[in-house]
Amino acid sequence: MRVGVYAGAMLIAWSGALAVAQTKVSTPEEYDKAMKPAGPAMRTVQKAFASGAYADVRKELATLKTAVADTGSFWVLHKKDDAIKLNKDSLAKIEAFEKLVATDPVDAAVAAPAMKEMGGSCAACHKQYREQDAEGNYRIKPGTIGG
């Protein structure tokens, strides 16, 4: 009986985790909300890296990585193959940089070019699909997804 109760609890917990993992970003508003933490995270990564605060770099990279990963479904839903590629490239660059700053000690000379590549991949998507509003907040460029 106890095994059944534990199995049932595990199934419920797993189902909840799966539901969260399957949350889709489908509207420009959801996309903007999901990406909102990315800009501050990127700025903190750059400042923390420059000062050698690698624990802060790692923490903010997790925020950045989540934002980019969570928004991938938006581009898939809207069938934007080039944006899907940009999203995957950005995620790969974040992960490559993440691996370099996970070492102890961090070799800043090796990690710095990877950070630059990561920033470049983000900028490529922004150039194509994002613009700033009057308050300086980024949003999806009008006409990007039709409708």
Question: How is this structure best described in words?
Answer:
A hairpin with a 5-residue loop joins strand 1 and strand 2. Helices cover 74% and strands 4% of the residues. The protein has a single domain, classed as Cytochrome c/b562 (Four Helix Bundle (Hemerythrin (Met), subunit A)), CATH 1.20.120.10. The N terminus is likely disordered. It is mainly α and 147 residues long. The termini are far apart. Helix 5 packs antiparallel against helix 6. The protein is elongated and about 50 Å long. It has a two-stranded antiparallel ribbon with strand order 1-2.
N- and C-termini, Cα separation: 55 Å
Unreliable stretches (pLDDT < 50, length at least 5) are 2-22
Overall mean pLDDT:
87
Rg is 18 Å
The CATH H-level superfamily is Cytochrome c/b562
SSE string, helices as H and strands as E:
HHHHHHEE
Indicate the structural class: mainly alpha
